[in-house]
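cache lookup: miss for this entity combination. No prior model stored, computing from scratch. Input as submitted by user K.M.:
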Amino acid sequence: MNDAPITSAEAMVQETDDDTSFRRLHPLSIILKSVSAIGQNLIAMGVLYFSVFDQNIVYAGLAALALMTIIIGVTALIWSRFTYHIGPKEIRIKSGLISRNNRSIPFDRIQDVSLEQKLVSRILGLATVKLETGASAGEDGKLDALALADAQALRDALRDYKSGIAASGSDRTDGAIDSSETDARPPIFAMDNRRIFIAGLFNFSFVLLAILAAIAQNLDFLLPDEFFNPWYWAEQLSEQDVVNGLSFTAQIAGAVGALISLIAVGIGSGIIRTFIREYGFRLDRVDTGQPGFRRRRGLFTLTDMVMPIHRVQAAILRTSPIRQRFGWHHLKFQSLASDGSGESDHSAAPCAQIEEVDPILAETNIANVTPDLQFQRVDAALWWRDAVILTIVLSAVSIGNGLFVHPGLYALILLAIPIIAVMFLNWRYHQYALTATQLFVRAGWWRRKLTILPIRKIQTVDISQSPLDHPLDLATVTVGIAGGSAMSPLKINDIPREQAMALREQLI
Amino acid sequence: MTETVSTIDDPLAEMEQDKARAYNQGLTPLHPPQKSLIRLNVGIMTGILFIAAVIVEFAIRNELPLAAGSIIGPVAAFALFLFVMLPGRIYRRWGYDMGDEQLRVLRGFMWRTDTIVPFNRIQHIDVAQGPFQRMFGLSTLIVHTAGTHNSIVTLPGLSTPDAESMRDTIKGHIRQDMI
């Protein structure tokens, strides 16, 4: 980035660059980190107990004690070498035991600030401060952990600095984002337990099943040797007269029952996961300092994030065919920084009707789709060209397998039907529209995604053609926006090249 | 470029006159020595290909009763074809345009890409030079944007003074705190 603010801030800090102005993290954070480190080493201790120490509890206890002392000692040493300083324009973090690292983050460059409280830190009254600049994948500044009051003070210091720029030194001295102030006003969006339940219904996942499978894998010494051998089960089943004795309908009913229980597990784990993440979801508008959004959520791990509105690059509305039938949408905001939980975009309303989405969008000056907006389809080659390639490849595969392996494998060609159907539907739902200030792009039939991008947020525009595009004179437009996933940038696929050129003229 | 201009009845040369269909759409071509550099790179690449073919031929010579040169021959022909055909085409497809407000970069022979970067979206600029480039007096202009896609746009094959003057032009447009 440009170096002007960094150098000036550094020059200012030079005079205060003595160790007295630097502060340490809260001492309890030693315990916090030790606990998690010991937890990780618990399994190793268990293994040692059974193997090296031959189940001798005295030796194992001594070893465990030594290990704990080392862990706590090292954690304390790291803690004593980790100091931070909040200057007038930047935050400085010194860290490292042997190789020292001295980082300075100018307030200008901080995208969003989030406070996170895991279950243990909530009991101890601590909070982790995460500062995002968008420079790297993870957070760039992590203070783990401060007393909750200190963490809030740090956030307010950042906010005051920004308001100082916005209002150029007006007498805004009070106005911490204390909960009494924002809680007095109704939130822009909040989810009650019923809504979280609905969100969970659509959050189908097999995580629980995977966990069960992992447990089964790790405890497999308790299971019969051949548990994971499918032939063993096939033999068992075919030998069982019970199954053979049943009528055909009963066998079907059994299979349907198994399927239903699988779906129930998927839905159940989706609901549990959603409750853990979204419990008490509340989105407020913060007006002290720079206008921004403040989002609080979490059942065990509380997160409290503040994100300035002007950092929002684009709005993303996600839904699926079933969800859309009931009118539910997931609103996200794309910004340079990524959301804490590994998502690239900031979730602003996980499950909301369009009437609820519109007011949130209005806060960011992004307009939603109006009924009279004309969406344009892309060229039909998007689906038929892929369909032709797929058919050729699949028929080669099925003929090869049918001839040499088993005649039944000719049926592989039938796979083409559902895949081509999905390609066709994906083409139907890939549309775009352009207004004077915004670009709308729809993509995906099953995972529907509508991206609303203010044109002034566009960084670059690419027009690219693959060798297959040349004969049809088609082109793909790729729009570079700050933030989001590098793997799936915003694209308008396969439109005629002249149209792409004209569209680009309007975008830049 | 000299070959195509001299033979005017070549259909390729005709195409060059037609701006919409022209390889580089009437944009500024790269500094001519860049063509030699591309030829050098393609030469190294095809050389490696040729050496690999020689190794493969000698390795399987005892296993399979092949006529001498039955691998080297076709590979050498293909390598020669690439060496003769590719550099000119790659060079012609490159083009750039310094507008008042934006930089346009066109590249690619089979996979074509046409990028526009507005100057005020550029975060910082590099002018880079490798050892071979220094031999030919060439430089690469690299602009960094805040976009996640296309965060780095490179334009190789500029003469070093050109690259430096472009950098100075763009520098004046860099704005602070866009994102």
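stored under new cache key. Residues 8-107+151-183 of chain A form one domain.
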